[in-house]
Structures are given as structure tokens and as C-alpha cells.
Write a structure and sequence with these properties.
By secondary structure, the protein is mostly helical. It has one domain (about 5-180): Up-down Bundle (Ferritin), CATH 1.20.1260.10. It contains 8 helices and no strands. It has helices at about 5, 10-20, 25-30, 40-70, 75-100, 110-115, 130-150, 155-180. α2 (about 10-20) packs parallel to α7 (about 130-150), α3 crosses α5 and α4 runs antiparallel to α5 (about 75-100). The termini are close together.
């Protein structure tokens, strides 16, 4: 991620990216479907996962608003709905994991709150390109967040799961970049920095 892209991320996304590196292997184990691994010191993990949950809600709402805008042509609308369904699966996994950790999942905001959010600038979405650029920015943040947790794993299986999720998020970013007609990153090691 370039310095300018990092600066354009919403504050909550930047906070999550900084905190992602301290997410414990136990919390990610639960998220990845390995509930038998240890649950030591879960209160901090639940708090970090709640930040991630808030970001998933934000992505789901953004795709929903984009879908309802009538600005996305057929194929782009199908892709937006697909990506939204994957974020809903992430949301559901996060809620289940936070509950297993003994935490309380944060509540979603109302559509009106997302529409009024200065971070998302929904009122400024006037074209399909505007919607795709916002979604791409959110997907890039998710890619970097998942890559940020991989070094914290003791288990190769958990690192593999996080890598697969990061690959999915990178695919979202790449598809959106191509749909916008923008150039893909030319440098090696462009993600996770």
C-alpha cells in the first residue's frame, strides 16, 4: 500500500490494520473453524474482532447501497452481490467467534448512519466508478489486515487459512481494479506492507 492509499483509509480501517498484528492465534483459530485451540486472554481478541466486525458491516452496507443505487450495470451488480455475500459470511464468522470468546458483538449501524458517514462519503457516489473505487479501498484494507495477522500464528494450518482469506480479498481488490480499468500494482510485494 502506498503512503497516499494508507492516508485515505478511514480511521477505523487504519486502527484495525495497526491492531491486526496483535490478534492472537486463538481468536483467529476460532474464526477459521478450529475451536479446539486454546482461548487464552480472549478479552483483547474480542475487542479487536469487534473492530473487524464493524468493518465488515461497513463493507456489507457499502455493497448494499451500491446495489440499490441503480448505478451498477448487470455484470458489476452480480459481482457486488457476490462480494457482499462473502462479507456476510465473514460477519457471521466474526459474530460466532466473538460470542465463543465471551464478548458481545458490536451492533450494526442503520442505513441512514452509513449514508451520513463522512468516512464513506456515500452522498458523493454519482457513478459506478465511484462505487467501485470505494469498494476497492475497503478491499485493499481487508487484504492488508489479513496479511498482517499471518506472522502471529504458531500453527501452519492457521497461517494457511489467513493466507487463503487474504487471497480472496486480494481477488476482490484485483477484480475491482480491473473493472475500473486501472493498472494493477507493478511492484512485487505490493500487499501487506
Amino acid at each position: 500500500m502506498t503512503r497516499n492509499e494508507n492516508q485515505s483509509l478511514p480511521d477505523s480501517r487504519r486502527i484495525f490494520l495497526r491492531q491486526a498484528g496483535v490478534l492472537s492465534a486463538a481468536a483467529v483459530a476460532l474464526l477459521a473453524g478450529y475451536p479446539t485451540l486454546g482461548l487464552a486472554d480472549s478479552s483483547g481478541d474480542a475487542a479487536i474482532l469487534n473492530v473487524a466486525l464493524g468493518l465488515e458491516y461497513e463493507a456489507i452496507a457499502t455493497y448494499q447501497i451500491g446495489a440499490e443505487s441503480n448505478l451498477l450495470p448487470g455484470n458489476l451488480l452480480k459481482v457486488a452481490v457476490l462480494f457482499q455475500s462473502q462479507h456476510k459470511a465473514h460477519r457471521d464468522a466474526l459474530i460466532a467467534t466473538i460470542n465463543k470468546l465471551g464478548g458481545s458483538p458490536v451492533a450494526d449501524k442503520s442505513k441512514a448512519e452509513y449514508m451520513a458517514s463522512s468516512k464513506l462519503a456515500i452522498a458523493q457516489l454519482k457513478s459506478a466508478a465511484d462505487i467501485l473505487q470505494l469498494a476497492r479501498r475497503l478491499e485493499l484494507g481487508a487484504t492488508n489486515a489479513y496479511l498482517g495477522v499471518i506472522p502471529s500464528f504458531q500453527s501452519k494450518d492457521l497461517a494457511k487459512v489467513a493466507g487463503r482469506i487474504a487471497a480472496d480479498e486480494t481477488m476482490h481488490y484485483t477484480a475491482l481494479t480491473q473493472a475500473l480499468g486501472d493498472a494493477l500494482p507493478v511492484n512485487a510485494l505490493s500487499f501487506g506492507a
